[in-house]
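Design job #97: recover the sequence.
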C-alpha cells in the first residue's frame, strides 16, 4: 500500500462512482478497480459494497477513510515543508554581526529577509569582526557581516553589501562640516582597538599616512558607547565609518573626513555552505545592495 493507493481509495470513497472517480484521478476505470481490489487484498478488508447500481462504503471503509485522509493531509504538509526547506524558507541560519555592521541598512535588510522567509529561524549574534572569520571556518556560524580584509578566499566567500567613507566624531562645540586629515595633527584621538575592528583601524591609519600625519592616539576602546562617551567628555575626537551617522547622541557632532579611503561591509560565508536558508538571505542582499566581491 502506498500514497497513490490511499489517494485512489479516498477519491472513490468521496465519489462513490467508478466513472467519476477514474476521471478525477486521470486513470481508466479498469485500473481504478484493480487498484481497489489490490488494496482490499493487502488490508484483508472489504471496503466497498458494490452492486450493479451503486457503490457504498462498508463500516471498515468508513473507518479507513478517516485515517486515510489524515495520512494524506499529513504527507502533503510534510512535502510542502520539505519544499520550503529545500528553497531555504524554513530551517535555521546563524548570523554574526559586528557593531559597525548594524549601523547602516543591514537591520532593515534582515527584516526584509524575515518577511521573505517567515518560517526561517534567524539566530543573530553580536561578534567582533576580528572573530568572525575563525567562527566561519570552524562552522560555528553560517554567515558573518563585518568589515574585513579578505584573507581566507580559499574557504570563504566575501561579498560587499555596503561601502562607507569616514566621519570625524567631535563634541557639538565643533562647527566644521568637513575636516582634512592634516587638521587632526596633534588632536587627541579615541579609536576602536585594533583587535576589535582591525580592517577599520588599518584604513584609518592609512588615511593618516596618506596625509603624512602621525596620529596622536590617547585612548583605545572596545565599545562604541564608550567611544562616544569619551568624546562627549572631551577626552578626544574619533574617526568612524560614515554609517555611524545614523545614530544620534546628545553632545556629539559629525564632520565628513576628506579622504578617498573607504571601508566595505561584507557578507561572508563558507564557500561550500549547504545551508538552504543561505539562498534567500543572499537573494535579499544581492537584490537590495547589488552585493559584489571585494
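Job complete. Output follows.
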Amino acid at each position: 500500500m502506498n500514497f497513490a493507493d490511499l489517494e485512489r481509495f479516498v477519491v472513490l470513497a468521496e465519489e462513490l462512482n467508478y466513472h467519476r472517480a477514474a476521471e478525477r484521478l486521470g486513470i481508466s476505470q479498469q485500473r481504478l478497480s484493480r487498484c481497489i481490489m489490490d488494496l482490499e487484498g493487502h488490508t484483508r478488508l472489504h471496503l466497498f459494497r458494490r452492486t450493479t447500481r451503486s457503490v457504498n462504503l462498508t463500516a471498515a471503509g468508513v473507518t479507513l477513510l478517516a485515517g486515510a485522509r489524515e495520512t494524506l493531509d499529513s504527507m502533503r504538509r510534510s512535502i510542502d515543508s520539505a519544499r520550503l526547506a529545500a528553497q531555504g524558507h524554513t530551517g535555521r541560519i546563524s548570523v554574526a554581526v559586528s557593531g559597525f555592521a548594524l549601523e547602516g541598512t543591514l537591520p532593515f535588510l534582515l527584516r526584509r529577509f524575515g518577511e521573505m522567509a517567515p518560517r526561517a529561524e534567524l539566530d543573530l549574534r553580536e561578534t567582533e569582526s576580528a572573530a568572525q572569520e575563525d567562527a566561519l571556518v570552524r562552522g560555528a556560524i553560517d554567515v558573518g557581516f563585518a568589515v574585513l580584509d579578505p584573507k581566507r578566499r580559499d574557504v570563504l566567500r566575501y561579498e560587499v553589501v555596503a561601502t562607507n567613507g569616514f566621519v570625524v566624531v567631535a563634541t557639538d562645540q565643533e562647527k566644521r562640516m568637513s575636516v582634512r586629515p592634516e587638521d587632526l595633527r596633534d588632536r587627541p584621538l579615541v579609536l576602536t582597538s585594533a583587535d576589535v575592528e582591525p580592517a577599520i583601524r588599518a584604513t584609518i591609519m592609512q588615511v593618516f599616512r596618506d596625509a603624512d600625519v602621525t596620529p596622536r592616539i590617547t585612548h583605545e576602546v572596545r565599545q562604541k558607547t564608550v567611544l562616544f562617551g569619551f568624546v562627549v567628555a572631551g577626552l578626544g575626537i574619533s574617526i568612524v565609518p560614515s554609517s555611524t551617522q545614523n545614530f544620534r547622541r546628545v553632545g556629539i557632532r559629525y564632520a565628513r573626513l576628506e579622504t578617498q579611503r573607504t571601508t566595505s561591509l561584507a557578507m561572508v560565508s563558507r564557500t561550500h555552505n549547504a545551508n538552504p536558508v543561505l539562498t534567500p538571505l543572499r537573494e535579499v542582499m544581492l537584490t537590495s545592495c547589488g552585493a559584489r566581491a571585494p
